[in-house]
Amino acid sequence: MMHMTFYWSRKVTLLLDSWRTETWTxxxxxxxxxFLCAAFYQYMEDRRIRFKAITLLKPAPLPHASVExxxxxxxxxxRAAAVRTAVAVLFGVNSAIGYLLMLAIMSFNGxxxxxxxxxxxxxxxxxxxxxxxxLIAVENPCACA
Length: 145
Fold this sequence. Notes:
Structural class: mainly alpha
Distance between the termini: 42 Å
Largest sheet: 2 strands, antiparallel
Radius of gyration: 21 Å
Family: Belongs to the copper transporter (Ctr) (TC 1.A.56) family. SLC31A subfamily.
Pfam families: Ctr
Subcellular location: Membrane
Membrane topology: Multi-pass membrane protein
Protein name: Copper transport protein
Strand content: under 5%
C-alpha cells in the first residue's frame, strides 16, 4: 500500500520495488544512503557553480591577438563550447539527483524526509556556506538570475 500521508515506520520502499527495508539495520543504512546522496547533491551544485565562475572570470583575450594569431579565436570558441557542455552535464547530473531525492521524499516516510533535509543542510554547510555564490549573483546584473 502506498502512503499518502507521513508515517513513521522502518518498513519503507524507496525508488525501486527492490529497495525495501524490513529491519532497523536496513532502514538505518537506507537513511544514511539518502543523507549522503543529499549532501552529494550540494557538493555537485558547488562544483557546478565554481566551475562556471572560474570560466566566466577568466580574462578575455586581447583583440590584437586574433590579428596576429587567427587560430586562437577558434580555440577559444571551442573551449567556450566545451565549458558550456561541461556545465550543462553537471547541471543534468545535479537535476537527476535532485529529482531522485524528491521521489525518495514522496515515499512519505518521516525518517526519509528528515534524512534528506538534514543531508541537504549538512551539505550546504560543508560545501556552499562560504558565500562565494553571492559574489556570482552580484556580478550578474540580471534581476532574474
